[in-house]
Structures are given as C-alpha cells and as structure tokens.
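Worked Example 4.2. Consider the chain below.
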Amino acid sequence: MMNTTDYENIWQKSLIHVTDKFTLPPVVLQAGEAIIGTLGNFSVSTGKAKAKKTFNVSAIVAAALVNGQVLEYKASFPESKRTILYFDTEQSPYHCQLVMQRILKLAKLPIDKEPQNLKFSHLRALLTLTSAEKSFATPFTIRQMWGWWSLMAFVI
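Applying the procedure from the previous section yields the following structure tokens:
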C-alpha cells in the first residue's frame, strides 16, 4: 500500500517543465505525412456512429501487421514489438471474424491462415453490462509499446 510520500514522489516525477529537453520518440504510425503514433504512446480514435471508425482501425492494424503501408497508413515497428492484440467488446464473434478477415485482406494476407502476430479477442460475452451501460461505450484505439509486444485495442 502506498503512503502519501509515494504519491508525492509520483507527482513530482510526473511534472513537466517548460525548460525540460525531450526528443521525439520513434515514429511507428503515420497517416500520409502526419504522425499518428510514436513508440511508447497510445492513440484514441472516436467518432460518430457509422463514421468508418472500424474500417480506419482495420487499415491501421493491417499496416501494423505487415509493418508497411496499407492505404494511407504506414507502420514501422521494431521487430521486437510486432505482436498486435485487438479487442472488441461489442460485436458478435461472427462480425469480429469479418473484421479480422478485412484486416487480413487489406494486408494482402490469406484469410484461411492464422496470422502469427495478430491476436483478435472477442470480449462481448465476458461483459455483464446492462443495455443502458452499453450505450455509453466509446470506441477507442490504444497502442502501447513496451516489453516485447504492442497492444492495439479497438473497443466499441
């Protein structure tokens, strides 16, 4: 259990000062020339219903899967950080599989062979949210790179 000294330490370490010097972390995701992801950070993708969020995330995942360009998205991850975990908490297994197949097609990979560095998880069955709680779910993408893996999650 943390005491107040620990919280003070955490607070002090989290402060950023205008005089601090930082360097840009390695760029790992781009949309055209725009940087949308750097190593060690995460991104959030939100939008209105039917705004093609799943398609855009699918293209980003496909680019990460081939570690190259898919449509306007370009990925360049270190070899040691290439495992993608994709989580969907709303769609049925059937629709999740369609999304996974779309990702593989965008990446020009076979849809009848399990990709080694993509783990697609359907979590809807594990959730015990009521309908009212589900209506508050927000789509987002998280990309975190540390240790040996990269995390890409899309939760709707």
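The radius of gyration is 18 Å. Residues 26-155 form one domain. Compare this with Example 4.1 before moving on.
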